[in-house]
Amino acid sequence: HKLRIECRKNLSILQTKGLINTGYQTILKTSSKLRDIDVMLKICKDKEIRKILKKKRKKMNKKVIKTFKNIEFKQIQLEEEKINLDLKGCKELLKVSFLQKDDKELHKIRLKIKACRYTNKEYEKEFKKLQDALGKAHDYYKCSKLLLKYKKDLLNADLKKKKFIEKAEEIRKELLSNYKGIK
After folding, report:
1. pLDDT over threshold 60, residue 183
2. CB atoms < 10 A from the CB of 46, how many?
3. In the beta sheet, which residues pair with residue 77?
4. I need a labelling partner for 163 at 20 to 30 A (CA). Which of 43, 72, 107, 178 fits?
5. How far is it, in rounded angstroms, from Cα 171 to Cα 175?
6. Cβ distance 135 to 4 under 8 Å?
7. DSSP 8-state assignment for residue 20
C-alpha cells in the first residue's frame, strides 16, 4: 500500500511537468487487482466469496512479484499537455455534483483528487477526506459487482456505497466554498 502511495505521489508530480514514469505506472497497474482483492476480503463477508478471493490473491501475488522483478523505470515526455493540478484546475473537478456521476466517472475523479492532494499541500487534508469517501464508495461498488456475479444479496453494499457518495458530496460542497478566493 505504501509503495502504491509513493508511486501515485511521484506520478502526480511528474504529470504536472508533462512527464510520466513507466516503472511507477507498471507498479500501480500490476498491484491494483491485488489491492482490490485485499479490500474485498475486508468488506465482503460472504464465506464463499472470501474463499474464492483467497485463491485469487495467492495467484495474483505470484504474478505481482514476478512483474516487480522485471520493472524498468523510464521517464517519458507526455504527448498531451501537462496535467493542470494547480488549485484552479482542482477546483474544476468540484464544480459538478457527484450525485449525478456514475461509478466509473467517480473513480476517475477520485484519481484526479489524489493527484490534487499530492500537488497542493495546503489543501491536503481536505482532498484526503474527499479521496477517502470516494474510495470507500468505489470499494463498495466493486463489492456489489462481486456479489452480483455470484448471485448474492447486494443491498448492504449498495447502501454503503450510496452513503459514501453522499458524504463525498458534502465534502465537495465544503471544499468548493473554501475555494471562493481562487479564480
Report:
1. no
2. 16
3. 19
4. 178
5. 6
6. no
7. E
pLDDT (tens digit per residue) in 4-21 = 999 999 998 998 888 999
- Cell triple for 151: 448471485
Per-residue DSSP letter, 19: E
Whether residue 72 contacts residue 21, with contact meaning beta carbons closer than 8 Å, is answered with: no
Say how far apart CA 54 and CA 72 lie, in whole Å. Answer: 29
Q: What is the DSSP letter of 82?
A: P
Q: Residue 12: which residues within 8 A CB-CB, separation 6 or more?
A: 85, 114, 115, 118, 119
pTM of the model: 0.84
What is the C-alpha to C-alpha distance for residues 117 and 112, in angstroms, rounded to an integer? 9
Q: Which residue type occupies 138?
A: H
**What letter represents residue 97's amino acid?**
S
Q: What is the separation, in whole angstroms, between the first and last Cα of the chain?
A: 35
CB atoms under 10 Å from CB of 130, counted, come to: 28
